[in-house]
Amino acid sequence: MYCKTCLFPNTKPDINFNSQGICDSCVSAKKKHGLYKSINWKIRSKQFDQILKKSKNFSTNYYNCIVPVSGGKDSTWQVYAMKKIHKMRPLAVTFDQFDQTDLGKKNLETLKEIGVDHVHFTLNPVLIKRLVKIGFEIVGDPYWINHVGILTVPIHFACKFNIPLVVYGENPLFEYGGPEFDRDNYVMDKKWRQQHGGMRGLREDDLLGKDIDLEDIKMLFFPSDDEIRRAKVQAVFYGHFFKWDPLKHTEFVKKFGWRQLKKPQVGSWSLTENIDMRFIDVREKIKYLKYGYGRATDQLNIAIKLNKISRKEALKIVKKIDGLADPKNEKSFCDYLNISREKYDEILSSFVNQDLFVKGNKGKWLPKFKRV
Ligand SMILES: [Zn+2]
């Protein structure tokens, strides 16, 4: 079953459909743009002002908020927003992207040029490689470590430097669908990270005995409740308080020299997303084999909701490109992890949903479903 207004299938985890066959991410989009049970953005913006006021009162040093950043269009815009619109003194914190592209690096430099202090945190690369492999093998997501890192390391900096506020970007559950209660929740805490932060059931404690000394990855453990209470740290989603508009962010940050891709990555459609992730096609190929949809679906759904493309046109595109990976890139990924192509295919196959795919003659997984 597919959503009537976007391209999400009901095989996407945590998605719900209403009686008209419309998914909850589309219902959120309607609420956001005032077409159904509208959100009162004025009230929410006032609520955000209160949070900022509290943070200013509690902060004991130069910084009064942290913005976790990758150098993508959204985090670049967010730094601008916190500094220039909300008149805060942000510290930008990056959790190093293990496969960062050259363009990703340049864009991160552009972000700093907005005029912000920046901490680039890099976990020991020997451990990172092991953790990428564990994420790939156990949960089918080589970026597991990145989800953990970006949702944890900035909270450590907030606790250690007594910075009471951490401002993340959009609320993914509101924008892309998720359990009803969490769609309207604006706080990112340990529970949220465990359930919705891309951890896929694998917790940092589970790494015990996997050739990882837990003492070496203390930065990946969420700070204790006591630490958080002591520094009065709260992490929130900016997209709960203001209308999240990736197209607007892109147009805006381009003025500062932020650059988009010249052509989309394989399996993707957008020129402005995941620019810093060299192996995004590998991750999305596995997602496609697990759930029957990939990155192109996510990206085109955003465009559909912003009325930039019709569902019909978007459907034609996803049929052609969703779930594809560049074989050269797959080889580079194998080289990075020091595994053979056969091992790689074996790991991929372990994640295939065989209700959705069947193995063809040449060993390729073929969809049993028809996208409509
Ligand atoms: Zn939908």
CATH architecture type of the largest domain: 3-Layer(aba) Sandwich
Question: Which residues sit in consecutive blocks of at least 5 with pLDDT less than 50?
Answer: none
CATH level-four homologous superfamily name of the largest domain: HUPs
Q: Say which molecules are bound, naming each kind only once.
A: zinc ion
Shape: globular
Order of strands, widest sheet:
1-2-3
Provide the succession of SSEs. Answer: HHEHEHEHHEHHHHEHHHHHHHEE
Based on secondary structure, the structural category is mainly alpha
CA-based gyration radius: 20 Å
Q: Would you count the extended β strands for me?
A: 7
**Quick one: CATH class of the largest domain?**
Alpha Beta
Strand content: 5-15%
Report mean pLDDT, rounded to a whole number.
Answer: 94
Distance between the termini: 9 Å
Number of domains: 2
Total number of helices: 17
Largest sheet: 3 strands, parallel
Query: How much helicity do the residues have?
Result: 40-55%
CATH topology of the largest domain: Rossmann fold
Summarize this, please?
By secondary structure, this protein is mainly alpha-helical.
Textual characterization of the structure:
This protein has 372 residues and is mainly alpha-helical. The chain has 2 domains: 41-240, Rossmann fold (3-Layer(aba) Sandwich), CATH 3.40.50.620; 260-361, no CATH class. Helix content is 47%, strand content 8%. The protein is built from 17 helices and 7 strands. It has a 3-stranded parallel sheet with strand order 1-2-3. Helix 3 (73-85) packs parallel to helix 4 (102-113) and helix 3 (73-85) packs across helix 12 (246-254). It is globular and about 65 Å long. The mean pLDDT is 94. Residues 3, 5-6, 8, 22-23, 25-26 line the site of zinc ion.
